[in-house]
TrEMBL record:
Similarity comment text for this entry: Belongs to the acid sphingomyelinase family.
Signal peptide interval: 1-19
Gene Ontology cellular component terms for the protein in this record: membrane
Function recorded in the entry: Converts sphingomyelin to ceramide.
Domain (Calcineurin-like phosphoesterase): residue spans on this chain: 211-484
GO molecular function, one term: hydrolase activity, acting on glycosyl bonds
A Pfam family: Metallophos
Annotated S-S bridges: C95-C178, C125-C139, C232-C237, C238-C266, C628-C632
Cofactor(s) this protein cannot do without: Zn(2+)
Keyword Signal: yes
Provenance organism: Friedmanniomyces endolithicus
Name of this protein: Sphingomyelin phosphodiesterase
The keyword Transmembrane helix belongs to this UniProt entry's keyword annotation: no
Length: 652
């Protein structure tokens, strides 16, 4: 009886606790697993996942699978996304729009085929009306067909990354929609040992000289249309399809008929190009010429949809055979220009596509042409670059400057690597060997490392290299590309960001203008395109130190092409020493080195007439030399004193 009563009372107690009719006493750390606060007729509530509480590892049902999309549907979505980013109005910052669009295309390129990416670019180009960027062609002809740039853009888009600043760099250099990306820190100790104490100055001149010819930017046009429209609005003029939309003229009824001797809006016709060599023989004793330089750009400025690999091969082959015929036994040391490849300005490192290179055909072609003429020994797989010792003992090192050229889209992946191709590592190895052998070096390239055509990171590394090996080992730097007769000064750095024993990192825009180290001679062009006269230079060079002692320039006045007969007329333009040192304050026995030209810029800053004369001579006395006053003159002086892209950006 007692037992039954006890069980009965216990059952009542349990039911009351379970139903919360009776409150169980609890303290804050009571581990009782059920609720003690009454819950009325509600369920028992549990602690610590006890009772019927589902365990923590039970899988929940997934949503329905993503619908399978065809490549066409994915492509359409990509186009819609990029167009919405650009036109939707939710993003007002042009830099963000540009980078976001590129990132969408990058992700798309990871899965879509090259053909699909090309089609996407065409659709975006049409939707956003980007024909102003397609080199006077249609979106279709620019990205596919004869233009065919779509596959190249697809390849670089697949490699690009926000993590290395690739999109920002592309948007800054190609569209000016972003700020310049930050400069990379380059530890000079990883590239070369410190400059030895006995390499701080150049050797003394010998008093003996030889002559060297320098011409650049040949751009002979085998499609030049004599009598065609020379005053066109359709890109390169003097072509069968040239027209002026403002005047409603074509090559059938030209407003300005193209002379067979050239015009300001056109590439070089054959007669103008060949006459340059006639003028060289007339004005210079060829027996005094020890060698000649060509600082790049053979191929004509054809529209993208009218150029081709076959045209580049034809023009390069024809040009070098012509140079051999015209120069005879005089050696020619040439360098690859941005137009001397197809597509124009594009070059890739060998590492870009698993050791294969889409441009190797061009490197092999140029190497074979240069070697066939007996000018050099070989190019050693350095992207058309080479090193060669002349019979006089000068080491000529030619480098492919497309690896810092802004329109080379392959410079916009892994942007923070300043030497993806290894071309600058090749240069350093040559300079170290020359230094050890007490040999003097000329560096020749096409695109100047300063100015608006060089991206910052490779050009600041090049500046560091030139500063390290000048003026003892490097005795001259020579460029082309601008179509002007320019100078570019390399100064030493004023400060470093780090100077620990294991690390030397420069402040690349802080220069010591009291310490000029080297001058780059930017050669005048044969081509008159961009409103300049045609020109070429002859240097008087110390026969032992190989420093330039003087320079003279000859030019053909393109304003007179319709009155010339039977051939173009070339004239003496100026003598550098007498023009920039009229009072003979510079020692006659001293070279026109960086110190000379730095002093010239000092005078320019006090005398507007001198920088104005420099700018007039830069165009080879063109009547179309643009007016330049005030801040324009200041920027022009800054440009002369800028030897890397980062410093050049400060001139704007």
């Amino acid at each position: 009886m007692f037992l039954r009563s006890h069980l009965f009372l216990q059952g009542i107690l349990v039911s009351q606790i379970a139903g919360h009719g009776l409150q169980r006493r609890a303290n804050p750390l009571d581990k009782y697993l059920q609720n003690t606060v009454p819950n009325g007729n509600g369920p028992i509530l549990y602690y610590n996942g006890s009772g019927p509480v589902p365990s923590i590892n039970i899988m929940s049902p997934e949503p329905a699978p993503l619908p399978g999309l065809t490549a066409g549907q994915i492509s359409a979505s990509i186009v819609q996304e990029v167009v919405a980013i650009s036109t939707g109005g939710l993003i007002n910052d042009s830099c963000t729009i540009c980078q976001a669009s590129l990132d969408v295309l990058h992700v798309a390129s990871l899965t879509l085929s090259q053909d699909a990416m090309t089609a996407i670019m065409i659709e975006i180009c049409i939707a956003l009306d980007l024909t102003s960027l397609t080199d006077h062609g249609s979106c279709e002809s620019f990205f596919s067909g004869t233009g065919g740039l779509g596959p190249y853009f697809a390849q670089v888009l697949q490699k690009m990354s926000l993590a290395t600043g690739d999109m920002q760099a592309f948007c800054f250099y190609e569209f000016s929609t972003c700020k310049a990306p930050p400069l990379v820190d380059i530890n000079e100790n990883d590239w070369f040992p410190p400059k030895p104490a006995n390499r701080m100055s150049a050797p003394q001149p010998s008093g003996k000289t030889v002559n060297v010819l320098h011409f650049s930017d040949w751009h002979m046009d085998p499609r030049y249309d004599v009598g065609g429209e020379a005053n066109c609005t359709t890109g390169l003029c003097c072509r069968f399809d040239s027209a002026n939309s403002h005047l409603n003229t074509t090559s059938l009824n030209p407003s300005l008929p193209a002379s067979r001797f050239g015009d300001f809006g056109c590439d070089s016709p054959a007669d103008l190009a060949l006459s340059a060599f006639s003028s060289m023989r007339q004005n210079v004793n060829f027996s005094s010429i020890t060698f000649s330089l060509l600082t790049g750009d053979i191929v004509s400025h054809d529209k993208t949809n009218q150029a081709s690999e076959a045209l580049s091969e034809y023009e390069e082959t024809t040009a070098y055979e012509t140079f051999r015929a015209q120069l005879g036994s005089t050696p020619l040391y040439a360098t690859l220009g941005n137009h001397d490849s197809w597509p124009s300005g594009f070059n890739t490192p060998n590492s870009f596509q698993n050791g294969t290179n889409a441009f190797s055909w061009n490197y092999e072609l140029l190497s074979s042409l240069w070697q066939a003429e007996g000018w050099i020994n070989g190019t050693e797989h350095h992207y058309g670059a080479y090193a060669h010792t002349t019979k006089e003992g000068l080491r000529v090192v030619s480098i492919n400057t497309d690896f810092w050229y802004t329109p080379n889209i392959f410079n916009y992946y892994n942007y923070t690597n300043p030497d993806k191709s290894g071309i600058l590592r090749f240069l350093v190895s040559e300079l170290l060997a020359a230094e050890a052998a007490n040999q003097r070096v000329w560096i020749i390239g096409h695109v100047p490392s300063g100015g608006g055509s060089a991206i910052a990171n490779p050009s600041i590394l090049f500046h560091s290299i030139v500063a390290r090996f000048s003026p003892s080992t490097i005795t001259g730097v020579f460029f082309g590309h601008t179509h002007q007769d320019n100078k570019q000064l390399f100064y030493d750095f004023a400060s470093t960001n780090s100077s620990a024993s294991s690390s030397v990192v420069r402040n690349y825009t802080d220069l010591n203008y009291d310490t000029p180290l080297m001058v780059a001679w930017v050669g005048p062009s044969i081509v008159p395109l961009t409103n300049y006269n045609a020109g070429w230079s002859v240097y008087s060079v110390d026969a032992v130190t190989f420093e330039v002692m003087n320079a003279q320039v000859y030019f053909a006045n393109i304003s007179n092409t319709l009155s010339w007969s039977p051939e173009p007329v070339w004239e003496f333009e100026y003598d550098a020493r007498s023009t920039y040192d009229p009072l003979c304050q510079w020692p006659a026995s001293a070279p026109l080195n960086a110190t000379f030209w730095s002093r010239v810029t000092d005078t320019m800053m006090k005398n507007d007439s001198l920088i104005e004369e420099y700018l007039f001579l830069a165009t080879k006395k063109s009547v179309l030399t643009p007016a330049c006053v005030g801040t324009c003159l200041e920027r022009s002086i800054c440009s002369i004193r800028s030897s890397n892209g980062a410093v050049s950006d400060t001139c704007a």
